[in-house]
Amino acid sequence: MMKKTLQMNRSEKLFSEAQKYIPGGVNSPVRSFRSVGGRPFVASHGKGPYLFDVDGNRFIDLVCSWGPLIHGHSHPRIVQAIQSALEKGTSFGVSSELEYRLCEKIVRSIPSVEMIRLVNSGTEACLSVIRLARAYTGRDLILKFNGHYHGHADSFLVAAGSGVATLGMADSAGVTKETSSQTLVAEFNSVESIQTMFRTYGDRIAGVILEVVSGNMGVVPPEMEFLRELRHLCTQHGSVLIFDEVMTGFRLSKAGAQGVYMIQPDLTCLGKVIGAGLPVAAYGGKKEIMEKVAPLGPMYQAGTLSGNPLGAAAGLASLEIIEEDENSFYQGLDHSTSHWANHLRSHIEHKSYPVSVAQVGSMMTIFFCPEAPNNYLEAKKSDIKKFRDFFWALLERGVYYPPSQFEACFISSQHGSSVMEQVTEASVAALDDAFGAKA
User: Is 244 in the active site?
Assistant: First the structure.
């Protein structure tokens, strides 16, 4: 794919105007492109694997709305499902058959989920499960992992301190010391770290929450020894094990990451694919724990638009498409992503670039460090300047990569072989540009 100078006049004008009435001109920080420098493009529409901006530029989309669009943009069956639901109403204030059917389908798909509650966002699902873990255990502390993101609730905006056994410090203004003091932070993939935490705080830990496959430090897969020990420690100490599968649920397999790694949590958070681009998320798990949720139990959580018919219709259509040929569907995604990853690795090795590639299923990150990271401390060693050069060189070749070193690419079923060949060609050229090398 040839490199060209992007014309972004209308995007720049709209973004400048937006900054007058929206903080930073965006409604979610990563959209500002601040981590890569420059100014963001403004989307117009999407179709299949492509995203179009208001200036008429077409990009192969490797972000896919940060994961929900596993079937690509504007899939006809999902559009039709939304249109059919829309004709009957947008929200009822009482339950509808569509939300019941979506809940049933999720429960039948994920063995660890015996009961489920629909909500509107991944943040809402994650903040609900930690409240539920505390309600179920009667304890106060939550353990999370350095570099894992579970939404913007106060309890999660805590970064690791200098030691694995220290209490976290707030990572955002407005988070009180009292709140941050109830969040422990351990190092992902470190057995020693979690053993130390449970040895020190085991009788106070209500729950442990983690991204099974990390996506918010870039793609970092779990080590099996770490997952097994975490499951063992939670069982031993009576703590609730929570898998945040907002990214990985129905993306890595029909049963999510837990279906790949064969470790069952007590509670699971879902989102993204189950809404097919609409604001739908969920949390669910063991019946005995979920029965603590109101109206059955004392843990209160509610939402006016939870399970809204448009989102439920889109989610049902998304999951039904996957079910029609589940094995072929996931094999196709894995093949497309692996093809790209393997060609990049070959080029990186040939050129001796200090770059690594991490891939799990249809999630992938190109790290600008020699070895694929095992945790957030290692991921932070990446060369951010080189990544910025790579990002813009790729965008100028018509490929939209996530505008942050610490994010994951998401591939859809619409990213066929010809599209991925273009992505591979553009990625190789962009790497050469970033390192000032000749092809």
Answer: yes
